[in-house]
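Exercise 7b. Backbone tokens:
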């Protein structure tokens, strides 16, 4: 049963999410390698990361993906969705709205929009989606999407033998991005929040 067997609307929706997955392949691959090293699952119940929060102990219709994203699947075609955001800052992946966690929110989502939130301070690794997976071209161009928050570090696994890193420090005069052992052409996008001057490896952008 292929998506195009249903309707053009469903096929377009499936294609958009396939492209999203392909664009996130660097992030997914790096997280999968870390999962093999640490044993921590790529998709995980919220209680694994927020064990002290009683609200998430029996919450089974949301999950954490790749450590940085909260996914709240829709169980109806379109309409309202109550979503619990754990303590911290969360940014709507689609609208870039900044939301404070530790509470329930209600949002309306159409069929083509999966409720997806990114943890504040995250660094998402993205690339241009292709029509198939090409391990070499996937790493030709990387986009670092930096979400508002305290900053942090992301380990980047390019292949089984090549590991790099991205570190983000937030200071009063700007956002400092430091990379190590990454040969890809880099694009930096600051998502949501207050836009500050950005520095890459000491150079102002």
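Sequence design result:
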């Amino acid at each position: 049963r292929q998506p195009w067997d249903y309707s053009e609307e469903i096929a377009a929706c499936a294609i958009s999410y396939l492209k999203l997955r392909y664009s996130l392949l660097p992030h997914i691959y790096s997280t999968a390698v870390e999962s093999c090293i640490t044993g921590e699952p790529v998709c995980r119940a919220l209680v694994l990361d927020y064990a002290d929060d009683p609200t998430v102990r029996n919450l089974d219709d949301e999950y954490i993906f790749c450590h940085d994203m909260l996914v709240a699947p829709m169980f109806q075609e379109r309409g309202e969705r109550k979503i619990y955001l754990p303590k911290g800052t969360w940014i709507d992946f689609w609208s870039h709205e900044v939301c404070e966690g530790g509470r329930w929110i209600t949002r309306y989502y159409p069929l083509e929009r999966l409720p997806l939130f990114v943890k504040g301070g995250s660094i998402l690794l993205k690339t241009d989606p292709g029509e198939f997976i090409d391990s070499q071209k996937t790493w030709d161009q990387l986009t670092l999407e930096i979400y508002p928050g305290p900053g942090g570090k992301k380990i980047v696994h390019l292949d089984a033998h090549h590991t790099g890193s991205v570190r983000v420090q937030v200071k009063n005069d700007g956002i400092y991005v430091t990379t190590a052992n990454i040969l890809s052409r880099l694009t930096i996008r600051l998502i949501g929040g207050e836009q500050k001057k950005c520095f890459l490896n000491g150079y102002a952008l």
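Instructor comment: The chain has four helices and 16 strands. The first strand starts at residue 43 and ends at 44.
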